[in-house]
Design brief:
- The complex is a heterotrimer of chains A (about 500), B (about 350) and C (about 350).
- Chain A has 17 helices and 22 strands.
- Chain A is α/β, with parallel strands linked by helices.
- In chain A, the strands form five sheets. In chain A, strands 6-7-8-3-9-10 form a six-stranded mixed beta sheet, sandwiched between helices. In chain A, strands 16-19-20-13-21-22 form a six-stranded mixed beta sheet, sandwiched between helices. A four-stranded antiparallel beta sheet of chain A has the order 2-1-4-5, covered by helices on one side.
- In chain A, strand 17 and strand 18 form a beta hairpin.
- In chain A, helix 3 crosses helix 4 and helix 4 crosses helix 5.
- The longest helix of chain A has 16 residues.
- By secondary structure, chain B is mainly alpha-helical.
- Chain B has two domains: about 300 residues, ABC transporter involved in vitamin B12 uptake, BtuC (Orthogonal Bundle), CATH 1.10.3470; about 40 residues.
- In chain B, about 75% of the residues lie in helices and about 5% in strands.
- Chain B contains 14 helices and two strands.
- In chain B, helix 5 runs antiparallel to helix 11.
- Chain B is globular, with a radius of gyration of 21 Å.
- Chain C has about 350 residues and is an all-alpha fold.
- In chain C, strands 1-2 form a two-stranded antiparallel ribbon.
- Chain C is globular, with a radius of gyration of 22 Å.
- Classes of the chains: A alpha/beta (about 500), B mainly alpha (about 350), C mainly alpha (about 350).
Chain lengths: ~500, ~350, ~350
């Protein structure tokens, strides 16, 4: 038997003639935590789906426990002890926790009938294995994201799992929950289970993994011990570029604040939040997932308006009761989830850019086609959106370019205030760097910018001041000069 | 105990049961005619065909699809079977017609299954299309017209009663056809399959999250395909039963029933997007529609008001469930935040 | 030079690809017209035949336009026939009242009656819109219930029977021809032109398509989602009401269950015309073609007496399924034999 639990050697995969994987390899030892990293579109998800039997490879060898596997089906993979926890956890929101836990084992055992008592026992054993406490009879849809993930992990453990693959498991978790997750992962490692941890977040890779593998554009770039890795090397492997950190220093501030918020409250979400932003300044708002930061952002843009308090723009009190009102008051908003809130994916890049300012692009009630086209071409060029034709669907773009489209949509409305909720979530390092550059430039041109993010290096690098929220209340205001992540974390927790 | 009571009041079935109960009390109070043996038996026999249709519609909706072709499918099967047996001068029992209906129904259901299940095309449009094709085959190719005579075996089956209930006060009596047992058997079978087989749980799983179901190892396409086949079979049996009960074959008078059947299923708490719903709710919802259609006359509402009432019922019923879904969604979000904050 | 040629070729190809659906309909239509020319030239290609066709399709054509706008938002309108009948019935009753025993009304009243029909359609469609936009009832259920309700009101108003003793002036006016063109068609054309203008030239069309793609993104982009939805169902209501007015003229009577198979036929036409049932995709040109194609198919078939007219529904269904399967294979680039999960996303 080889030293490796799992080996994939020289895997190739094409989709409709496009190469997704170009001879990549991956080796995992028994009981190790291995991190697979790479930008979006690098092929890591494709490889996972090949391992789990969702896709079939075009060529290459896959070995598990020393045995060569020819064709893998999802059931095969499960039977052999390979378990994948997908980003959406592959759970059934309409079924109870118990059924979600037990249904796979029933399928694997090829049961035709359901024994509810047996299912309950299976489910109970599953949650006890990692000491997870949950009511087995509640519908899964009512649980929090972290709880859902725990259910998915418990489910994965039930089949004598030898290799658990976690696809970007921390994306929707709070810091506290990530800590809890890592504890569980270490616990699993002690039980001799190998973990393939897929992530593109540096700090997580360093914290949890022993060995790493990096893919870029479908190719294997590097693999080795995490100890020998540092920040710089890691970003270089991921992107093939080297970056310098450009800390933002406000150039010239407007005399009076553009946006002032006074004692804003929305019961159940946030309470008595006050701050102000001047033109030329970037304010960071940070906090844990439950801190009310997203709710505050939504309130400022009128999606879920605040109940109490006052918002003043250019010194004038305004009521922002709907997104239209916010736009009228020259507020732009880049939402958290690009796919379900930011972009009309199947529609053209051009339409995505002009939709929010469309009512200004008409002449006596009729849409001015020429003006629309000019506007689109202008923004495609201005934001350096990499596309051969703005008529193409937004879904053809990479994450970074998609985010530029969302930015262009708001810049086209020439806002005074731009609010960004997680501006670089799911954006690769290269584009992230570019987007930060754009934001800093906009601030220097006099715009008031608010970045809401829990990516601490991001806020430290780009913001001049910071508002920290905790449990819906303000827990601190700081200047980002000579500040450390530790200081922010203390206020957040 | 308290927990159980609370759970009871979270279920849609409880509310719809209470509404039905209230309605029957109202009818009883106004007419004194509802809780009479013959009326109850009448309602039960009126439930047979819609009930069978509802089972099929329910299963398909539960899996995240929809079928609007079952009345056309049932009409085609019933007409083709009856006509064929008349042509060969068949004299035997009802088993052969039912068997024939099952075979034809399965084949027609498989057509839906191929398009909507295997090819995964939008079910609503597919079944609209097949519905049109089935109608075309029946009226065009088979040149359907009313058949006043039906085979002897079917006639006897339609007449055979489980029991007869008489109303002493006005001398009216009604018999419950044996066919009622078919509904009971099909409903019980479906209940069992949904609750106690992996196939049944797969229907819920697919309705809840099709991708997850695929990843977990459910045979998604096969399950969906089989559901359309099953719906075809059940609808065809319903079609034959209807012919037997009416003692004649009227090829077009089932057409157009699909919308009220689906409305009944949804009123019974089945989510139109799939994944949520129970067999009990499905039957109660259908019963509510049947009651409104059949019993309004007992409280002195003229028959012409029937559609108005059914329409209002659908709008109010769906509005209430949409409102409930929104409220729980809201509470869920809030509750989640509060829990995390503490 | 050569390069320019290939570029032109590419442009033609991309124009074809973009409107693949439209081209396919045009080809089917041409084939049908050639087939009719070869087999039944003298019976099909007559002025009267075309005049009849143009007088017939506006009734369901108008309703199809209504279903189209709703389907682009990702919704549907199952209440079109209900609205059409309730409009026809209420206006017939009104005309009865105005005309009294004389069975004649002035042209002025015909115009008023039409305006009134539009108001009825606006109210009915607006109600649908409110249920969908404000109460968040799934459109299929909201319009199903409302359709039933409108039909019910129609039955109550007429006692379930037909109204035919209303002023003959009305049917005479609408069944007329202007320069050989049926008035029914003129009404349809006016509605189609206005709607095309709204969809192509004003921002409404763009907003409609984007809203149909994702209501949530539309909300975050600052579109007035509720207003657009209400407006859309309102337009559908008006289209249905006008369809009802034409039915009233064509049948010379009004009844609550007229045209009951139009509900499904309209959906068939709209999907045939290339509108995606999931919303966010569709062009009025495709739907207009589909409306005409359906009528041409049916009229053409009627020229073959040996073929039962009931075959028409078989053919519609088969064509619809065929078009869907074609779209499935061309637009997804999927081979039948490859297993794949339902949504594909690489990384």
């Amino acid at each position: 038997m080889s030293e490796y639990l799992f080996r994939a050697i020289d895997i190739h995969k094409y989709f409709a003639g496009v190469r997704a994987l170009d001879g990549v390899s991956l080796e995992i030892k028994p009981g190790e935590i291995h991190c697979l990293a790479g930008e979006n579109g690098c092929g890591k998800s494709t490889l996972i789906k090949i391992i789990s039997g969702v896709y079939q490879r075009d060529s290459g060898i896959i070995e598990f426990e020393g045995e060569q596997l020819k064709k893998i089906t999802p059931i095969d993979a499960i039977k052999r002890g390979i378990q994948v926890i997908y980003q959406d956890f592959s759970i059934f929101p309409n079924l109870t926790v118990m059924e979600n836990l037990a249904i796979n084992s029933q399928l694997v055992e090829n049961k035709r009938l359901v024994n509810w008592k047996h299912m309950r026992e299976t489910a109970r054993t599953a949650i006890e294995r990692i000491g997870f406490k949950v009511d087995l009879d509640v519908t899964l849809g009512t649980l929090s994201v972290a709880e859902k993930q725990m259910v998915a992990i418990c489910r994965a453990l039930m089949f004598n799992a030898k290799l658990i693959i976690m696809d970007e498991p921390t994306t929707a978790l709070t810091k506290k929950e990530v800590k809890a997750l890592f504890k569980v992962i270490l616990q699993l490692k002690e039980q001799g289970i190998s973990i393939l941890f897929v992530s593109h977040k540096l700090d997580e890779v360093f914290e949890i993994s022993e060995r790493f593998t990096v893919f870029r554009s479908g190719k294997l770039i590097a693999t080795g011990n995490t100890k020998e890795l540092d920040d710089k090397k890691f970003s270089y492997y991921m992107t093939g570029r080297e970056f310098e950190v450009r800390s933002f220093v406000p150039d010239k501030l407007s005399e009076k604040p553009i946006l002032e918020v006074d004692n804003l409250s929305l019961p159940g979400s946030f309470e008595k939040i006050s701050f102000s932003v001047k033109g030329g300044e970037i304010l960071g708002i940070t906090g844990l997932l439950d801190s009310g930061r997203t709710e505050l952002a939504l309130a400022l843009f009128g999606i879920h308006p605040a109940k109490e308090g006052e918002i003043r723009i250019h010194g004038r009190a305004v009521k922002i009761s709907s997104p239209q009102k916010a736009i009228q008051n020259k507020i732009g908003f880049v939402p958290e989830d690009r796919l379900s809130e930011g972009l009309f994916l199947p529609q053209s890049i051009g339409d995505n850019i002009i939709i929010s300012e469309i009512d200004h692009l008409k002449k006596s009630g009729i849409m001015d086609k020429k003006k629309c086209r000019d506007e689109i071409l202008h923004w495609v060029k201005e934001m350096a959106i990499a596309t051969p034709d703005p008529e193409n669907a937004a879904s053809t773009l990479s994450g970074g370019n998609q985010q530029r489209v969302v930015l262009a949509k708001w810049l086209a409305c020439s806002p005074d205030i731009l609010i960004l909720n997680g501006p670089t979530v799911g954006v690769d390092i290269g584009s992230k760097h570019d987007i930060h550059g754009i934001l800093q430039e906009l601030a220097n041109k006099g715009m008031a910018i608010i970045i809401i993010s829990d990516d601490l290096p991001e806020v430290i690098e780009n913001c001049s001041r910071l508002l920290i929220l905790k449990g819906g209340k303000e827990s601190g205001k700081m200047s980002t000069h000579e500040i450390t992540e530790k200081m922010i974390l203390d206020k957040m927790m | 105990m308290q927990n159980k009571v609370r759970k009871l009041f979270q279920q849609n079935e409880t509310y719809i049961f209470l509404i039905i109960f209230a309605l029957t009390i109202l009818i009883q109070a106004r007419s004194g005619q509802f809780y009479t043996p013959n009326n109850i038996v009448d309602i039960m026999s009126a439930m047979i065909v819609p009930g069978l249709f509802a089972v099929g519609a329910f299963l398909v909706i539960l899996s995240g699809g929809i079928d609007v072709s079952f009345p056309a499918l049932a009409s085609l099967t019933a007409f083709a079977t009856t006509k064929f047996l008349l042509d060969i001068n068949y004299q035997g029992s009802v088993l052969v017609p039912i068997l024939m209906a099952i075979i034809i129904g399965a084949a027609l259901g498989a057509v839906n299954g191929i398009f909507a299940g295997l090819l995964n095309l939008p079910a609503m449009i597919v079944t609209l299309g097949t519905s049109s094709v089935f109608k075309g085959i029946m009226q065009g190719t088979l040149q359907s017209k009313q058949l006043a005579v039906i085979p002897k075996g079917m006639k006897q089956f339609g007449r055979r009663a489980l029991f007869t209930a008489a109303n002493k006060s006005n001398g009216l009596s009604s018999s419950l056809p044996v066919a009622f047992l078919v509904l009971v058997v099909v409903a019980a079978l479906t209940f069992f399959v949904l609750k106690f087989t992996m196939f049944g749980r797969g229907v819920y799983a697919i309705g809840g999250n099709e991708n997850a179901a695929y990843n977990a190892g459910f045979k998604v396409k096969k399950t969906k395909f089989l559901l359309y086949v099953f719906t075809g079979i059940v609808a065809s049996i319903a079609g034959i039963i209807r012919v037997c009960m009416m003692q004649q074959c009227h090829p077009t008078n089932m057409l157009g029933m699909e919308m009220n059947i689906i409305a009944g299923v949804v009123l019974g708490g089945t989510a139109i997007v799939g994944g949520k719903g129970t067999m009990t709710g499905c039957m109660l919802g259908t019963l509510l529609i049947v009651l409104v259609e059949n019993s309004l006359i007992l409280i002195g509402v003229p028959v012409i008001w029937k559609d108005v009432f059914v329409g209002v019922l659908i709008v109010v019923g769906t509005a209430v469930s949409a409102y409930q879904a929104e409220k729980t969604g809201h509470r869920k979000r809030r509750g989640h935040e509060v829990k995390e904050a503490s | 030079m050569n390069e320019r040629q290939t570029q032109a070729g590419l442009r033609i190809k991309s124009a074809y690809m973009r409107d693949r659906h439209l081209w396919r309909l045009i080809i089917i239509m041409l084939l049908w017209f050639i087939f009719m020319a070869v087999t039944r030239f003298s019976k099909f290609y007559t002025v009267v035949n075309f005049q009849t066709m143009f007088a017939q399709f506006p009734e369901f054509g108008l309703m199809s336009l209504g279903v189209m706008v709703c389907m682009i938002t990702g919704g549907i309108d199952l209440s079109t026939v209900g609205i059409a009948n309730v409009t026809a019935i209420s206006t017939a009753l009104l005309m009865q009242h105005i005309g009294g025993d004389s069975r004649h009304i002035s042209v002025f009243w015909v115009v008023v009656v039409f305006l009134l029909a539009i108001v009825v359609g606006m109210i009915a469609g607006g109600l649908n819109g409110m249920l969908v936009a404000k109460l968040h009832i799934p459109p299929i259920l909201a319009t199903l219930g409302m359709g039933e309700l409108f039909t019910g009101i129609g039955i109550v108003l007429t006692n379930g029977s037909a109204i035919s003793d209303f002023p003959t002036t009305y049917a005479f006016a609408v069944n007329n021809r202007v320069l050989g063109i049926p008035v029914q068609f003129l009404i349809f054309a006016a509605a189609a032109v206005i709607l095309s203008f709204m969809l192509i030239k004003t921002t409404y069309g763009k907003k409609l398509i984007l809203l149909g793609t994702s209501q949530n993104v539309a909300k975050y982009s600052g579109l007035k989602v509720d207003m657009i939805l209400i407006k859309t169902y309102l337009i559908s209501g008006v289209c249905s009401a006008l369809g009802g007015m034409i039915m009233l003229a064509n049948y010379n009577s009004a009844r609550a269950d007229y045209g009951s198979n139009y509900t499904l036929q309209c959906i068939l036409i709209v999907v045939l015309g290339g509108v995606s049932p999931n919303g966010g995709k569709g062009k009025i040109s495709g739907v207009l073609l589909a409306i005409f194609l359906v009528r041409a198919l049916e009229t053409g078939l009627n020229r073959f007496p040996q073929i039962s007219s009931y075959y028409v529904s078989l053919i519609w269904g088969a064509v619809l399924l065929l078009v869907m399967v074609l779209n499935y294979f061309t637009e997804n680039d999927i081979s039948l034999f490859k297993k794949k999960p339902n949504n594909f996303h690489a990384d």
